[in-house]
Write a structure and sequence with these properties.
single chain; about 290 residues; alpha/beta; TIM Barrel; 2 domains; eight-stranded parallel beta barrel; two-stranded antiparallel sheet; 12 helices; 10 strands
Length: about 290
């Protein structure tokens, strides 16, 4: 079964207390951060802390991720070498602009797994696309390696790269946001939406999360423990949505058995696009144990 990634929570890699707190939250993904969340003079301390956390803490069902520094930063190889023996479930690669950058990480992971006798392909890769160059290269990035399981949309860095002003409405990044979710769907990847940086604005967080879910995103990046519950709820099908999807699928199967194609349900025409949407709702519900 595909791993659920409704909420991806970042925690500073050099703060064991915060990582320990994250491990208790029942969040889908905990991402220990060596990039923006760690000061330059704390990188080595963060690497050591992350390995300690991976070895000592019980993260429950949470996916254990490490965000390394971008390829070309001069720190990425040391980040990987220092943390791989903690055996995280996956790595998050930021500021991805080309397929070659993802392939660099995947090649290194293959070598590490071979050297340690681990199953090949057991370490996932999630790519953050957050620059103009990354957006225009999405087709090559999305299909470059089977380890790649998700595309992550970085709105704040993209706005800076574009010279755009971030607004609450988000129209300045809407094209790129839509492009990321479209490429994820085309290549059977999960799509993880942008951060809501004002962690005190719960109403705005819920609105933005529901909007992302309607666009087709499967989850959202978060930066504070208080964001876990509302975000995971927003990306979980409601009981009403599940019941409606079941009715559509059951009616479709009954009509198929009778040799009928499109049919009417509750006064509305139901054809294959509607059926497929209902099936996706049920797939999401099964993944989180609601069906």
């Amino acid at each position: 079964m595909t791993r659920v990634r409704r909420a991806l929570l970042y925690m500073p890699g050099d703060d064991m207390r915060k990582i320990g707190k994250a491990a208790t939250l029942d969040v889908d993904c905990v991402c220990m951060d060596l990039e923006d969340g760690t000061a330059l003079n704390r990188k080595q301390a963060a690497r050591e802390t992350i390995v300690q956390a991976l070895r000592a803490l019980d993260f429950g069902r949470s996916e254990r991720l490490v965000r390394i520094n971008p390829v070309g930063s001069g720190m990425e190889a040391d980040d990987l070498a220092a943390t791989i023996d903690g055996r995280p479930d996956g790595y998050v690669l930021p500021k991805v602009e080309s397929a070659e950058e993802v392939e660099w990480l995947c090649w290194r992971l293959t070598g590490a797994e071979q050297a340690r006798g681990w199953p090949l392909g057991s370490t996932n890769v999630l790519a953050i696309v957050e620059t103009a160059r990354g957006i225009i290269n999405l087709r090559d990035i999305s299909g470059c390696d089977r380890r790649l399981v998700a595309l992550i949309f970085g709105a704040e860095d993209l706005a800076g790269d574009l010279g755009a002003t971030r607004t609450r409405e988000g129209w300045e990044v809407f094209y790129a946001r839509s492009t990321v979710v479209t490429h994820a769907a085309a290549f059977d990847l999960q799509a993880i939406d942008m951060v809501c940086v004002d962690f005190r604005d719960t109403e705005g967080l819920i609105r933005e999360s529901l909007e992302g879910a309607r666009m087709g995103f499967t989850g959202k990046q978060i930066i504070h423990p208080n964001q876990v519950e509302p975000v995971q709820a927003a990306f979980t099908p409601s009981d009403e949505a599940i019941a409606h999807a079941r009715r559509i699928v059951e009616a479709f199967e009954a009509h198929q058995a009778e040799g009928a194609g499109a049919f009417a349900l509750d006064g509305k025409m139901v054809d294959m696009p509607v059926v497929k949407a209902a099936q996706k709702v049920l797939e999401k519900a099964r993944a989180v144990g609601k069906v």
